[in-house]
Amino acid sequence: MRQNIASLSRRALVCAVAIGALMAARPAGATVSVCIDSSNPAHAMDRRVVQAVAHQQGTDAAIYTFDGSGKGDDDGFDVKTFSTLAASRCALVLGFPVDAQHGAVPEGVRATAPYARMGFVLVTPRGHEAETLAVLPNGTDVAVTYLTAPNLYFVKHPNVQADIYPTDAQTIASVVHHTDRAAMVWRASAVAYLPGGEKARDYCIHALNEPHAAWDVVALYGPQGAAAAASFQKSVEALRRSGQLAALLSPYAMSPANPIVLAAADVPAAPAAAAAPVAGGEKPALFTAAQADAGKKAYADNCAQCHGDNLEGMAGPALKGKHFASPKANFHVGDIFTIVSQNMPATQPASLPHDVYVDIMAFLLQQNGMPAGSTELTFDGAKSSTVPLVYSGE
After folding, report:
1. CA distances (Å), 237 to each of 36, 116, 256, 379, in order?
2. Which of 181, 225, 331, 345 is the most exposed place for a label (fewest CB within 10 A)?
3. What is the pLDDT of residues 39-93, one digit of tens each?
4. How far is Cα 299 from Cα 236, in angstroms, rounded to an integer?
């Protein structure tokens, strides 16, 4: 289960899950009641962790599995589903990733302290090992999954170029079949999809030292789950001290470098963030009103079917609001434009004319509270812009 940009922009729950099923009573007498996403490539790790926690507490684990892949769901992912799930079907929702530097969790839920550290890795065939993007030869094609954080890294590393795939499985397959020399992918996906799985001996996996590459894995819980969260954290800490936790997490993840164990009530969801001011106290005008107007039509023609008529998110993530453009996410105009111009539309990435991408970006900026001005936004200007993108609407 992953978010991308904050999304990992990947849908972690299916909104089409029937409310009647979600509201079913929890198993009687179960002390460790958890939900685990079966589509998460690290679901086996989460299952091992909860079973060890239950054993440590001297009870049984009650595990409810759900498919968070979104297959067959036309309505897309609504983060409010997390709150519904955590408040009804189970006490804890395991496997939720948050950016290790400035992540946030959905409204209506809280998070335990991290029990694992995960993130994005660079995968190369053994014999052509590369620990960083910088050491790859000029012109190297690097496979990357659509709408994931590593799409941002190509701007800083002009020696490599993106080869974008719709799924992690296809991204890994491109290296296995020698279509691409390297791949950037979620670590658990590399373990899950490489031949031989965790014992793959023909490939090298190195953690990426790039922005938004390191993620912590937490358990989410609702108002009634505070006691269960506190017990979970206490047991995880006991497993860490005994050395058992590292074995449970391997090879999908590792223990956080500096685990912090807090009382469950002291681990709140990230608060709604106010817009961060830029120099001078005002946001710069990067585009014209005419560009935003043209972008509104271009968005409707090319983007709305996945991201919603009002940018609210459907099959694709929301492109507007405090969860999309949070100051804690530390995204800039250039970061978002790089993803838009390289990954959109999903069926034919990077296929639109440059001026259309610029107009769409102008519309996104306008909808997130940026002012229009008298100077037109350009393709190169949008791609290199370091202006913070922070939502300032209602």
Report:
1. 20, 11, 11, 49
2. 345
3. 899 999 999 999 999 999 999 998 988 777 755 333 333 445 555 665 567 889 8
4. 46
Mean pLDDT of 159-171: 91
CA angle 102, 108, 114 (to 5 degrees): 40
CATH superfamily of 289-384: Cytochrome c-like domain (1.10.760.10)
SS (H, E, C) the chain: CCCECCEECCCCCCCCCCHHHHCCCCCCCCCEEEEEECCCCCHHHHHHHHHHHHHHHCCCEEEEEECCCCCCCCCCCCCHHHHHHHHHCCCEEEEEEEECCCCCCCCCCEECCCCEEEEEEEEEECCCCCCCHHHCCCCEEEEEECCCHHHHHHCCCCCEEEEEECCHHHHHHHHHCCCCCEEEEEHHHHHHHCCCHHHCCCEEEEECCCCCCEEEEEEEECHHHHHHHHHHHHHHHHHHHHCHHHHHHCCCCECCCCCCCCCHHHCCCCCCCCCCCCHHHCCCCCEEHHHHHHHHHHHHHHCHHHHCCCCCCCCCCCCCCCCCCCHHHCCEHHHHHHHHHHHCCCCCCCCCCHHHHHHHHHHHHHHCCCCEECCCCCHHHHHHCCCECCCCCC
- Specify the pLDDT at position 315: 61
User: Do 119-207 and 289-384 have matching folds?
Assistant: no
Query: What is the reported pTM?
Result: 0.70
As a CATH number, domain 119-207 is 3.40.190.10
